[in-house]
């Protein structure tokens, strides 16, 4: 493509697109037959909870190999779908790929080395110094890497995405050299020294060139064998946008691969993207665009931070669905597998009891046993429900009060697995995601004056004024319970998230927090009744009953408080329900027990906020906190559906509607409202 790849302007972009079209078309001409469209998603391994964190993935002779960053092993999956350990005693293995000799090359991020696994499972170091991070070219025994994630062999060389050095390195003839990159940033260039990357992760070979998933630049880059670097796709915006290569957008692409038919596939966040399916190359999303889990038709399939992707000779894709702890495939063949049901997936999830057994009893401060105030609970609304459902969300953790600038601490031993675990640096929502816990509203690795602690696990970018402009915590970094994570910002609390991303648990249930207690009964303030179209039922005077006859929505305004809360504090409710009693106070048929409809033992689907909270609900930086729950809807971690109280099924007469609001500790508040069925 010559100099075209460095051109700018609409005309040059058009010429580049034509050239790319010819390149993709040429790849397709080399195949004997057009591949069938990818149409189905199946789960192929992990249904017995074998994996900790499946990440890198490779295929050889019909067998699938998976790196497990959490357990430090390489798994092999044969035709029976049962994972067996192929190699162990690795630290935090990331991307893997086979070389021309049939050995498996491994980027072992946690030990800062490149290794290979021989055919008998023995592990040998290829380059880097064990457990020593840094940057140094030279002899393979003295060269240094910084948590490399991507690796791909090609023509006797091994190419490495040296992720936190922001460089593409090459191992050849016993030496390590830098091919492209240097200072963190974004820049294309005619030479490798001009190019800049930001947290490059996945690598693949494409027509004699390297493809790079440049994660924090949200772009797909191409590196020539001479180091020249150009951008293939992505405009730098963190979004999922299909279309022309230069106008498309990605969110933290992690893994990349090619098919023999010429297409490029990219895995990142919660979606699988493809480039080159059409004669004129564009970016297309073949799965859903959100995180979670779903098998079946590929257009409806859902993934959760896929870390690796590879194609076999049949054109099938295998994906390490890291956050879901599964290995999955995307195929054109309807008989290639069986979809894993939502129930079966739910049954695989860790319970709050199991989670609690793995956690020491402590608070995220010192002293660890000192009881702290809970400022917000799991499942509360954040934002304001104004009828549009815009910019509202569930509160997915527990807010634990501390003092401004107080040191926050890890509450369990974990190592960082997300390549981009730090989010929203120098904002009030700055956070670090660990595998099973999230810590939010913290100045990571630095004090109240923005001065870094000097902990080498926190990699700071420093501006010209000497102040931090960003921070990364490399994949494989290990922390012990009680170690300092950072200091509290102006929010004056740690927002603590329990559970894996997308499968959050109620932290009151999942964690051991010494001395936490709640003897206070939730306050039920008001019950409002609406018809199907949200017209409120009203009485002619305060002494008469509301008349109901059809589908009815029940809305309750309520809040909770825990021991130690200030009087102004309003917390969300753990469980809500209702019951219908006759005029004598006896339950009517079908309501012998309260009908519990809303529960926050685990986090509901993000789209269900409007099913839980009625218009007028608000919390966060929105003034007075108001929780108005739609008690007739059925919402929990596994179900979200609209429902009604069907008053028409009752016999004519007088009745009592009793609404219940329960906190996690079993305290139940209630309120009655009389109505009449005509």
Provide a brief overview of the structure.
Helix content is 6%, strand content 38%.
Question: Which terms summarize this structure?
Answer:
mainly beta; 3 domains; Neuraminidase; globular; disordered N terminus; 678 residues; six-stranded antiparallel beta sheet; 5 helices; five-stranded antiparallel beta sheet; Coagulation Factor XIII, Chain A, domain 1; Glucose Permease (Domain IIA)
Description:
The chain is mostly beta strands. It has three domains: 317 residues, 6 Propeller (Neuraminidase), CATH 2.120.10.30; 159 residues, Glucose Permease (Domain IIA); 155 residues, Coagulation Factor XIII, Chain A, domain 1. Helices cover 6% and strands 38% of the residues. The chain is built from five helices and 54 strands. It has a six-stranded antiparallel β-sheet with strand order 28-31-42-36-35-34. Strands 24-1-27-26-25 form a five-stranded antiparallel β-sheet, with no helix packed on it. A hairpin with a 4-residue loop joins strand 12 and strand 13. The chain is globular. The N and C termini lie far apart (79 Å).
């Amino acid at each position: 493509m010559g100099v075209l790849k460095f051109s700018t302007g609409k005309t040059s972009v058009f010429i580049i697109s034509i050239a790319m079209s010819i390149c993709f078309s040429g790849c397709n001409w080399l195949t004997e037959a057009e591949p069938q469209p990818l149409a189905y998603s199946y789960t192929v391994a992990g249904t017995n909870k074998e994996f900790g964190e499946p990440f890198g993935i490779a295929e050889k002779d019909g067998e699938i190999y998976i790196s497990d960053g959490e357990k430090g092993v390489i798994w092999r999956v044969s035709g029976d779908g049962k994972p067996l350990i192929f190699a162990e005693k690795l630290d935090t293995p990331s991307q893997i790929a086979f070389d021309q000799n049939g050995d498996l090359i491994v980027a072992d991020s946690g030990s800062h080395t490149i290794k290979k696994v021989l055919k008998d499972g023995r592990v040998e170091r290829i380059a880097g110094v064990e457990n020593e991070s840094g940057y140094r070219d030279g002899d393979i025994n003295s060269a240094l890497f910084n948590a490399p994630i991507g690796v791909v062999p090609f023509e006797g060389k091994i190419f490495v995405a040296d992720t936190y050095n922001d460089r593409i390195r090459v191992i050849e003839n016993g030496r390590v050299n830098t091919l492209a990159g240097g200072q963190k940033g974004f820049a294309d260039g005619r030479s490798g020294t001009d190019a800049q990357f930001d947290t490059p992760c996945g690598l693949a070979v494409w027509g004699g060139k390297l493809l790079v998933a440049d994660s924090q630049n949200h772009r797909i880059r191409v590196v020539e064998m001479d180091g020249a670097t150009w951008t293939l796709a992505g405009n730098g915006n963190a979004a999922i946008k299909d279309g022309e290569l230069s106008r498309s957008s990605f969110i933290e692409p992690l893994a990349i691969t090619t098919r023999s038919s010429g297409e490029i596939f990219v895995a990142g966040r919660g979606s699988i993207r493809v480039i080159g399916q059409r004669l004129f190359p564009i970016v297309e999303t073949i799965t859903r665009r959100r995180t979670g889990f779903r098998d079946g038709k590929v257009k409806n399939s859902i993934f959760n931070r896929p870390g690796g992707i590879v194609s076999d000779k049949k054109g099938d894709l295998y994906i390490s669905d890291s956050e879901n702890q599964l290995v999955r495939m995307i195929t054109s063949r309807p008989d290639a597998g069986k979809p894993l049901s939502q129930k079966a997936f739910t049954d695989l999830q860790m319970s709050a009891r199991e989670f609690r057994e793995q956690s020491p009893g402590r608070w995220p401060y010192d002293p660890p046993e000192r009881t702290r105030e809970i400022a917000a609970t799991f499942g509360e609304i954040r934002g304001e429900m104004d009828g549009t459902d815009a910019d509202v969300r569930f509160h997915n953790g527990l807010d634990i009060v501390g003092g401004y600038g107080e040191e926050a601490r890890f509450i369990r031993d974990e190592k960082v697995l997300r390549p981009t675990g730090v989010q929203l640096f120098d904002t009030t929502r700055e956070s670090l995601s660990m595998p099973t816990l999230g810590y939010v509203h913290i100045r990571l690795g630095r004090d109240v004056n923005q001065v870094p602690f000097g902990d080498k696990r926190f990699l700071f970018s420093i501006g010209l004024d000497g102040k931090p402009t960003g921070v990364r915590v490399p994949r494989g970094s290990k922390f012990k319970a009680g170690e300092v994570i950072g200091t509290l910002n102006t929010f004056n609390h740690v927002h603590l998230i329990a559970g894996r991303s997308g499968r959050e648990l109620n932290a009151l249930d999942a964690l051991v927090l010494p001395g936490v207690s709640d003897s206070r009964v939730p306050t039920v303030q008001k019950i409002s009744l609406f018809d199907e179209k949200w017209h409120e039922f009203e009485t002619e005077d305060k002494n008469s009953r509301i008349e109901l006859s059809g589908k009815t929505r029940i809305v309750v305004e309520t809040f909770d408080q825990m021991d130690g809360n200030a009087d102004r504090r309003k917390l969300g409710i753990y469980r809500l329900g209702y019951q219908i009693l006759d005029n004598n106070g006896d339950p009517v048929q079908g309501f012998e027990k309260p009908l519990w409809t809303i529960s926050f033992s685990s986090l509901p689907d993000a789209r269900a906020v409007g099913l839980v909270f009625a218009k007028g609900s608000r919390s966060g930086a929105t003034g007075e906190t108001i929780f108005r729950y739609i008690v007739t809807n059925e919402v929990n971690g596994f179900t979200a559906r609209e429902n009604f109280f069907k008053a028409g099924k009752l016999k004519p007469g007088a009745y009592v509607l009793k609404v219940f609001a329960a906190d996690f500790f079993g305290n139940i508040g209630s309120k009655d409202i009389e109505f009449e069925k005509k």
